[in-house]
Structure formats: C-alpha cells, structure tokens
Design brief:
alpha+beta, Phosphorylase Kinase, domain 1, Aminoglycoside 3'-phosphotransferase, Chain: A, domain 2, 2 domains, about 10% strand, ACAD10-like, Kinase-like_dom_sf, Aminoglycoside_PTrfase
Length: about 425
C-alpha cells in the first residue's frame, strides 16, 4: 500500500518531464511511496484525472552494486514482453537523466489487483489458493486442482510460460549469455558480498561483516570436494520469481502482472524454480521431520520459515512441493534431477544471504527503500544457517546422483 514519501523527489521536475514525454499522464501529479520493495524506491503517481501509475527509480547516492538496481533492464524486458502471454504492466517511458528526480527511472501501468506479501495468501479460499500457485509454476495438463490451491496453480503456469518463451522472438536474444549462468552468478555474489561486508553503519561505525560460513559455502559451489552444478540450460529468467512479485486479479485466481524485473537475464531456469519453491525448502530444512514441525518445543524459526508449507502442518490449499514440481515440469517441458534441484535450492539460499546482506549494507548507509529494512537485515544469521543446511543436503544428493548416474545431466526429479 502506498503511503507517505520517505525518499523525497523533485515533483515539479517530474511533472515537467511527464508533460513533455508521457502524454498518458496528466499533470499535476500526486506522489506517494510504496512500503514494499527492498531495492529500487517505488512510487505511486496519481494524475489530474485520477489515473494511477507507478514509478521505479534507482536509489540515491553511490551504489555498492554495479549490476543491481538496473531500472533500464526492467523497462526493456517489460516493454519486450508486451503482447506475449507473459503478463506484465504496460511500460510508458524510461528516463536516464539524473537531473529529473536524482537517478534514472521508468513509469509503468498501475495494476489494480492483489499482491500477497504473505505467501499463504490470507483471506483467500482454499480452491483459489491452489489455482493461484498452479498458474505460477506452469501446470497445464489434466483437470485443475480444487480448493485454495487454485492461486498456486496460476503461479506455476506463469513461470512455465516465461521459461518457454523464445527470447529472440521478442528482441531479447542479447539480454544475457546462454552458458555459464551459475559460474557468473557465483563470481558476482562473491564480489558483491565483499563490498557489502565492508559497508559501515553511519551511526555506529560498525561494518556489516561477512555472511556466516561464507568461505565454506562459496567453496562448495565452486566445486571444491563437491559434484559439479547443473548442466547449462538457457531461458529468460525473472531473477526474483516469487509470490509477492506477482499481481493477482482483484477477484479471480489469475495473475495479471509480474513485477520487479531488475535481476532478469538469460540464465538457468532452475534459478527461478528454486526461488519459487523456497518456502517449502526453507521450512523443511529448519524442521526436517514431521515430529519437529508439530512439536510445541520446536526452536525459533527464521522469518522465512513458514509452517504452512511444511507437509506435516500444511495450510489447506497450499499444495505440496511435489505438486508444484509436476505442474512446472508439465509446462516448461523439463524436470531437474534430484541432485540438481538440491544444488539449485542451496544456491538460491546463498543468493538470499547476499540479498539480506545487501539490505543490511544499504540500511547501514541509510539507502534502504523499505520501511522494514532493519528487520530484514537482522535475518542474515538465521538465513545463513538454513543455507548451510541446504549445502549439506545438496552434497548428500550429489553423492546419491553420482551413484545413480544422474550427476551430469537432467533426470526425473524425486516427487
């Protein structure tokens, strides 16, 4: 929900730019700022006629990452996907002139729908919830699920559509390199994490510090005493595909738009799939048995571990992880092997560690755009602990895969 502006902009300068370049937006403009969005400050613009639009801009000041916050990439991919069956908001303009509002920005359509920051989708029927998840991961074949699984169904389907898209056909053939995705990501994470660790809090003078067990985790993914990662596979990937980056219709269990494309590229589709499956992965790592999940004496859980996604305590309408995998595989036309899926899940959690560390670094510099940045930053230790458990699980699955002859290619995921 949009509220008071926390990071002020020059509204008069914005109005002059809009009047000259965006005829769909009628000045004067009323400006509010959304509370969500950890990376790029996001504003709601209401024009003279009462029409609403959204503006996304780079954060102010010197940025730690040269690759994050690229609003120009968001604009390019949203513009390219217009007219495809991948739902995106309409993009109106891209401005790279810092003189207007202090940093580059773009303006897009405001989608009047529902965004679920809570992955369990409170207030939704069991039938709709399942369908909404199915459409995220790509399920297509057979009769649709019933109950709340409806929303999950739509999430699955949408991810499948994205990964099946012909990048060249929409002008995105040069949007990224088709090979070596995970190797590049690992090098990027290592470099970015070093810079973030050195960030110093402007009030306390204390550095953010490294991710716990970072050296061991980076060593695993680099191939030290571990099986190799997944075989290369190329698709247009969103880069942060999850429920709270989707806009659902106000009353129907279907997705009307995918948001937050700044990390999109040509890469391995496993990365998006594992990010979508993270709620199931995290809680199963935190509570590996049904008894642990049901125990009133269970240890405190990290914020990202939700009992609604544990098979022993699942909320009605939240589909099991195997169903999400089946739905996705039916739409995307491929299924990762168990070893690759475990490796990808662990890598996804390493990425989460780097993201949380980045939030901590931006909070230290007071550049964070979210109202809850300090709370997120405090989760670095718990998230790193879960990531290490995922690394241990991936190592175990990798050894199994070697014994079963699955280690170097794709196989049928254990569902």
């Amino acid at each position: 929900m949009a509220g008071p502006v926390r990071q002020p902009i020059d509204v008069a300068a914005l109005e002059r730019y809009v009047e000259a370049n965006v005829p769909d937006v009628k000045v004067p403009i009323a400006v509010k700022q959304f509370g969500f969005g950890q990376s790029n400050p996001t504003y709601q613009l209401t024009d003279r006629a009462g029409a609403k639009f959204v503006m996304r801009k780079k954060p102010p000041g010197k940025l730690l990452s040269k690759t994050a916050h690229k609003v120009e990439r968001e604009y390019r991919v949203i513009h390219a996907l217009a007219g495809t069956d991948v739902p995106v908001p309409r993009a109106y303009c891209l401005c790279m002139d810092d003189a207007v509002v202090g940093s580059p920005f773009y303006i897009m359509e405001f989608l009047d729908g529902r965004i679920f920051e809570d992955m369990t989708m409170p207030g939704v029927s069991a039938a709709d919830r399942e369908e909404m998840y199915l459409m995220v991961s790509g399920g297509l074949a057979g009769p649709g699920p019933g109950g709340e699984e409806t929303r999950f169904h739509d999430a699955a389907r949408t991810l499948g559509k994205l990964h099946a898209l012909d990048q060249a056909a929409v002008g995105l053939a040069d949007y990224g390199k088709p090979a070596g995705f995970y190797a590049r990501q690992l090098a990027l994470f290592a470099s970015l994490s070093r810079a973030q660790a050195a960030a110093v809090d402007v009030d306390t003078g204390r550095p953010v510090g490294p991710i716990p067990r970072q050296a061991e985790m980076l060593g695993f993914f680099a191939g030290e005493a571990a099986p190799p990662g997944p075989r290369d596979r190329a698709a247009l990937v969103h880069g942060d595909f999850k429920i709270d980056n989707l806009v659902y219709h106000k009353t129907e269990p279907r997705i009307i738009g995918i948001l937050d494309w700044e990390m999109s590229t040509i890469g391995h589709p496993l990365s998006d799939l594992c990010n979508l499956l993270a709620p199931w992965t995290v809680v199963s790592l935190a509570l590996p048995t049904a008894a642990a999940a049901r125990s009133p004496a269970r240890p405190p859980l990290p914020r990202s571990a939700n009992l609604a996604f544990h098979p022993a305590t699942a909320r009605a309408g939240v589909p099991p992880r195997p169903a999400m995998l089946r739905w996705y595989a039916a739409a995307a036309g491929w299924a990762p092997s168990p070893a690759d899926l475990a490796w990808g899940a662990a890598f996804s959690l390493l990425r989460d560690c780097v993201i949380v560390q980045g939030i901590a670094a931006r909070y230290a510099a007071r550049q964070a755009s979210s109202e809850r940045a300090r709370e997120y930053a405090a989760q670095l230790g718990p998230v790193a602990g879960i990531c290490w458990r995922a690394v241990e699980r991936a190592r175990e699955e990798g050894r199994k895969g070697e014994g079963e002859g699955e280690g170097e290619g794709e196989g049928k995921a254990r569902l």
